[in-house]
Amino acid sequence: MDQQQLRLWRKQIQQELDRTMDFWLRHSHDQEYGGFFTCLARDGAVYEEVKYVWLQGRQVWTYCRLYRTLPRFCRPEILNAAITGGEFLIRHARISADSQKCAFVLTRDGKAMKVQRTVFSECFYVMAMDELWRATGQRKYKEEAVKMMDEIIRWVRQDPSELGRPALPGAVPTNAMAVPMMLLCLVQQLEEADEVMTVKYSEVGSWAVQQIVQHVQRKGKAVLENVSEDGNELPGSLGRHQNPGHAIEAGWFLLCYAVKHQDPELSKVAIQNFMVQPFQTGWDQEHGGLFSFLDVDGHCPTQLEWNMKMWWPHTEALIAFLMAYFEKRDAKLLQQFEKVFEFVFSKFTDPEHGEWFGYLSQEGKVALNIKGGPFKGCFHVPRCLYMCELILDKLLAEKV
Amino acid sequence: MDQQQLRLWRKQIQQELDRTMDFWLRHSHDQEYGGFFTCLARDGAVYEEVKYVWLQGRQVWTYCRLYRTLPRFCRPEILNAAITGGEFLIRHARISADSQKCAFVLTRDGKAMKVQRTVFSECFYVMAMDELWRATGQRKYKEEAVKMMDEIIRWVRQDPSELGRPALPGAVPTNAMAVPMMLLCLVQQLEEADEVMTVKYSEVGSWAVQQIVQHVQRKGKAVLENVSEDGNELPGSLGRHQNPGHAIEAGWFLLCYAVKHQDPELSKVAIQNFMVQPFQTGWDQEHGGLFSFLDVDGHCPTQLEWNMKMWWPHTEALIAFLMAYFEKRDAKLLQQFEKVFEFVFSKFTDPEHGEWFGYLSQEGKVALNIKGGPFKGCFHVPRCLYMCELILDKLLAEKV
């Protein structure tokens, strides 16, 4: 391992994180209603004022996490913005007073515009509230987080009727990987340094892990996004659907769990099945970058963006391979990190305005020059950079 | 006007229509359950067996329309396939016995998998049933069409509650152009050579025309996909959204209406505002082809496929400019037809296997090589080719 290379990466990553946070701090705060504008053009100009609940929750999470873990971000303006975002969510995210169901998108002043029949708005609500509790010490945020978490668990494992999906005779009961991944992520969030929560959610955590691992199919040769509820392959496009970035993200979620629970078998599955294998099949040998979607049998996916290179799978790959290298010290894992790092820093970053472009064509050309939109906010890029910075710090500290 | 050029186009179009229909006749029929496979790979192989209701209805329409209007398609195998498709829809499309609401997608054997909270499955059901009545003479199909049509009108103009969209305080009441366009298309379908229907749906037709024309905004300089219910511009990305192919399609719907109702003012709007202007702003000067989406103020659209060149806007442009030329005899309109024709026949067609590619990158490279999928079936290509063939025949007949 080359110390100098690590220091260079460390420096570039810190600089990139600072530039990214500067972008959001400067352009995204709604001083009038609280919360954040997330539809920002390349230069940070607001091109749309509506507020996506996923992205409100994620930005609160990011601000609090950086505030409480990296000293240079422990600044009142950051905490205060997070609090106004959290309060905006508490006031407006729920679509009615007698339900925990949250909207997908709100008007600038907080009126519900659309609702998704899924649990994800609510999941990012939990992440926001738990971090806000940790950053402020205010108990009410923790209570918000736990109340919402318990409802999500009930919807997922007992009774989804409140989500509003009609029961249809041809609907295939599906274990979609996003759901247990999200639950595992929330369990890991809630149980950090908290014995009570660790006990409370321990069974949910191990259930989620087992649900995720069911997605390893084809005798270990592929991760499939959708499997049957008993862990078998589903027919058709749905069953053959692959999302390499998602598999890799699941990989580092599982690796965290394996390390904490000292489970070397799971650690191996996390690295081999969820990182190395999906990276191998998901990386575009011709133009570089990870494909967004693939079909395990090589059919053309029906998603129009299948061959686009999106920012977030690359952030997940950076975290995953650096974390895996930290745990295993296998130089091949660091080479994969380097491969992704070079692609990212030559294609996605924007030194002129900060934050990353989100959507490149297969050839690596910027296809949408927005920095934020309905699904891209202040989350994947800073989470990746902050986690990589911490891991690099640990590696560098060892060697001094 | 160059007779020889017209004859050449006529020949290429007939050949292309034959090749297209041969593709669907050969690969898409489900001999076991009736109806059609529409998820077909480049060579026609079925890669997914589920049945999208839009595409079932559209294929029945196409088969019947060709059967009854072009002698070379007046073949029993075509009518019989259409009948099995229509009967499949009658048996399976509705999600319950006490409602006209139809599914969006069915299992191969007809069980509802998903429902959209819109009226479009039902609209293509009407098109299928009306054509099936015209092709077979069987009254029950006409009754199916009218019963469904009246329910659609009730949902759109009186009470949408059965569609299942929750009423939310921040939801913006919107006149989305697709809805009146679809209704105008259905009125024109139902009233063909039918006095009773012409009287019955006359008011709906003129209402639809007036709703469509409201989408001309910015002092005539732009067609916007979504306007307020009183015909004003809406804020944000939704209000700025443009879909050039959709505007051009609306153009030929309006031109048909204007010709039938001898309305020269509407005819002018149809050609100038809905065809010429959207074509000007929607055509990619660098790589050719029509953009899928644009933002009227030049912001980057948030739809990932905004810069892709899709097959269907180009089919609409071929119909629109040839029809407009037929009505106005303005050589500039024929030049636009030629421009689109050349792009289409060099980029979308596939002489090896038939049918067109559906999705090209901005640069014109095939991005998805499927011939059919969740939104592409046996409809836009044959409708375009058949309509162009008829118009060219009329032009050529004049000159003999």
Automatic annotation (TrEMBL), chains A, B:
<dbReference type="InterPro" id="IPR008928">
    <property type="entry name" value="6-hairpin_glycosidase_sf"/>
</dbReference>
<dbReference type="InterPro" id="IPR012341">
    <property type="entry name" value="6hp_glycosidase-like_sf"/>
</dbReference>
<dbReference type="GO" id="GO:0050121">
    <property type="term" value="F:N-acylglucosamine 2-epimerase activity"/>
</dbReference>
<dbReference type="InterPro" id="IPR034116">
    <property type="entry name" value="AGE_dom"/>
</dbReference>
<dbReference type="Pfam" id="PF07221">
    <property type="entry name" value="GlcNAc_2-epim"/>
</dbReference>
<comment type="subunit">
    <text>Homodimer. Forms a heterodimer with renin and inhibits its activity.</text>
</comment>
<protein>
    <recommendedName>
        <fullName>N-acylglucosamine 2-epimerase</fullName>
        <ecNumber>5.1.3.8</ecNumber>
    </recommendedName>
</protein>
<dbReference type="GO" id="GO:0019262">
    <property type="term" value="P:N-acetylneuraminate catabolic process"/>
</dbReference>
<keyword id="KW-0413">Isomerase</keyword>
<dbReference type="InterPro" id="IPR010819">
    <property type="entry name" value="AGE/CE"/>
</dbReference>
<dbReference type="GO" id="GO:0005975">
    <property type="term" value="P:carbohydrate metabolic process"/>
</dbReference>
<comment type="pathway">
    <text>Amino-sugar metabolism; N-acetylneuraminate degradation.</text>
</comment>
<comment type="similarity">
    <text>Belongs to the N-acylglucosamine 2-epimerase family.</text>
</comment>
